[in-house]
């Protein structure tokens, strides 16, 4: 079977390698490895998402609630949030156990003790998130992707907001329409787009 970054247990030995990326407003050296999403660099979609996120002041009270990185890969989104907001609880989840291992390694080397790394079923049912940030795994297929979003978007707290980055050619427009029709309690719009990537925002109002 062909191995993908969304496989639970990638084949082959874990062979970490270092890359330098900009996270939390400064250059950071992190470890990545084969068998996870974008192991060579910070992918363009995630870089655009991090650049386009609103300032904390614009988010109001939700910026103090737990933040979820949905499908964390080697941890870029979660690490950036934890570096920028050291007082905030940050969760990083992924079905890929290698992704979780690398995210833990990166959190340790950056001293991010408030970053919690977990498999999806390890997150307590009563946790509600002030923010969800994600470069979602579009290539798992529409049915699986919709299942993921049905599981996690309802866990936005009152006033909570999700930001998803999706490439236009991979269905950003249709995904935005589906979220708006599926979650009628969320206000869905597209605050930014750049280089073929769209930021989809869903707010619980």
Write up this protein:
By secondary structure, the protein is an alpha/beta fold. It has six helices and nine strands, in the order ββααβαβαββαβαββ. A hairpin with a 2-residue loop joins strand 8 and strand 9 (197-204). The radius of gyration is 16 Å and the shape is globular. The N and C termini lie far apart (43 Å).
List the helices and strands and how they pair.
Blueprint: E1 17-23, E2 26-32, H1 44-52, H2 56-59, E3 67-70, H3 76-84, E4 90-93, H4 97-109, E5 115-118, E6 129-134, H5 142-152, E7 156-167, H6 172-182, E8 186-194, E9 197-204
Parallel strand pairs: 3-4, 3-6, 4-5, 6-7
Antiparallel strand pairs: 1-2, 7-9, 8-9
Principal-axes geometry comes out as: globular
| Largest sheet composition | 7 strands, mixed
* Rg from alpha-carbon coordinates: 16 Å
E-strand count: 9
Sequence stretches where pLDDT stays below 50 over 5 or more residues: 1-5
Helix content: 25-40%
Determine the strand fraction and express it as a percent band.
Answer: 25-35%
Strand line-up in the sheet with most strands: 5-4-3-6-7-9-8
Termini Cα gap: 43 Å
Number of helices: 6
Overall pLDDT metric = 92
Q: Structural class per helix/strand content?
A: alpha/beta
Q: H/E series, N to C?
A: EEHHEHEHEEHEHEE
């Amino acid at each position: 079977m062909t191995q993908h970054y969304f496989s639970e247990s990638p084949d082959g030995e874990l062979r970490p390698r270092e890359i330098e990326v900009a996270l939390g407003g400064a250059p950071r050296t992190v470890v990545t490895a084969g068998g996870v999403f974008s192991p060579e660099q910070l992918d363009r979609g995630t870089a655009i998402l991090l650049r386009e996120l609103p300032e904390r002041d614009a988010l109001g009270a939700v910026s103090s609630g737990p933040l979820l990185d949905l499908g964390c890969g080697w941890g870029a989104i979660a690490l950036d949030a934890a570096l920028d907001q050291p007082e905030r609880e940050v969760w990083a989840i992924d079905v890929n156990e290698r992704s979780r291992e690398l995210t833990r390694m990166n959190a340790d080397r950056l001293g991010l003790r408030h970053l919690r790394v977990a498999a999806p079923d390890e997150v307590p049912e009563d946790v509600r998130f002030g923010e969800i940030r994600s470069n979602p795994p579009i290539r798992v297929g529409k049915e699986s992707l919709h299942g993921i979003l049905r599981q996690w978007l309802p866990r936005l707290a009152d006033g909570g907001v999700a930001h998803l980055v999706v490439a236009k050619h991979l269905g950003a427009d249709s995904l935005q329409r589906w979220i708006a029709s599926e979650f009628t309690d969320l206000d869905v719009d597209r605050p930014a787009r750049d280089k073929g990537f769209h930021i989809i925002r869903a707010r619980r109002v």
